Amino acid sequence: MFDKKDLISRRTFLERSLVGLGGMAVLPMFRNAKLNLDEFPAGEWLGRNTVYLPSTLPIRAKPSADANVVRYLSEDECVVWLREVVGSHPTGRVNRKWVETPEGYVYSPSLQKVRNIPNEPISTLPQSGEDAGMWVEVTVPYVNLTLENPPAKSPWLNAVSSTLWRLYYSQVIWVNQIKTAEDGSLLYRVEELYGSYGDIFWADARAFRVITAEEMTPINPEVTDKKIIVDVNAQSLTCYEGNSEVYYCQVATGKKLDELGNPVETWATPVGNFWVWRKLYSLHMSGGSAGATEQGFDTMAIPWTCLFQGDGVAIHGAFWHNDFGTPKSHGCVNTTPEDAKWIFRWTTPQAPYYQGDISDPVSYTGTKIEVVQRLY
């Protein structure tokens, strides 16, 4: 059976590693690493293991936590995603979804659903007036990074091995330079514009799809009566235009227990009436502090962020788990990246492409958000 202590995602590992980082050491740079894309299984859809070593994620003979183990997946290993099935849930979990693979079944919450679609790189950056650069989206399971400006500044870089500096499927980031590698391949210089500690990377350009300004056009901008209802009990998000429902998705709001099953009050998603006051194409999120009831977290390139309470509570895409429908976050409203992008385009205010950011903290004109929770 699953032991909750043994299922540690990369994000959770980083959270624990950030406790007491005052004396952190700088890890070796990615100097000699090959930036060529890794090979992945052939399949329309793949599942990427999000469970971090030394823990492992099993493939089982049946969709049950009691079934025999076929083998264990290594970190970030991808398997062919045939279909999702309903099985029995492990002790302490409510999600009953499993992914059928050619070898057996894997518990769905621990597999990010991904595709492997390398792209034809471009050799010249788009330009508009004095602005040059482009937003891109990762369309392969993961892409390796090399750091341009060591030593690493971000806590997440200092908490994991340098061989595991990666961006993952669906992450969004800014490209501001292009260069040709010694083998003739093109590399993109990727940089976070917002929330970054200042780390800058190079990566294989084939991993990234260019996001155009045209695909980010607002959805139904003429409608003024828009509202989002987040139901904490149902773990759902519904978009309304007037009284008409126009979009629905499952979410993961603030979790009530940590990875060891201890109650955590500070991670609850705030309940009440809010409005979208800031939107960013991509945001580096960090938070928390060392202590018995709170741990730090540090995650880069979180896509399609709509802030609605303070500087840290937002609706945004999540790529580090697939447990939508279960409280999972540190207070934010996690959605799939696809859902987050739709919500980002539909809500107001509207972020201009080259800035990738807009804020309106005082006029209360952003899309209204109501977070509801029944206490009985």
Can you walk through the features of this model?
The chain folds into 3 domains: 4-114, Roll (SH3 type barrels); 132-215; 216-372, Beta Barrel (L,D-transpeptidase catalytic domain-like). 6% of the residues lie in helices and 36% in strands. The chain has helices spanning 10-17, 155-159, 337-346; strands at residues 46-49, 57-60, 69-73, 78-80, 83-86, 97-101, 104-107, 111-114, 127-128, 131-132, 134-138, 142-144, 146-147, 166-168, 172-180, 186-191, 200-204, 208-211, 226-231, 236-241, 244-250, 272-275, 278-287, 297-309, 313-317, 333-335, 357-359, 368-372. The strands form 8 sheets. Strands 13-17-16-15-11-18 form a 6-stranded antiparallel beta sheet, with no helix packed on it. β9 (127-128) and β10 form a beta hairpin. It starts with 9 loop residues before the first helix and ends with a strand.
Give the helices and strands, then pairings.
Blueprint: H1 10-17, E1 46-49, E2 57-60, E3 69-73, E4 78-80, E5 83-86, E6 97-101, E7 104-107, E8 111-114, E9 127-128, E10 131-132, E11 134-138, E12 142-144, E13 146-147, H2 155-159, E14 166-168, E15 172-180, E16 186-191, E17 200-204, E18 208-211, E19 226-231, E20 236-241, E21 244-250, E22 272-275, E23 278-287, E24 297-309, E25 313-317, E26 333-335, H3 337-346, E27 357-359, E28 368-372
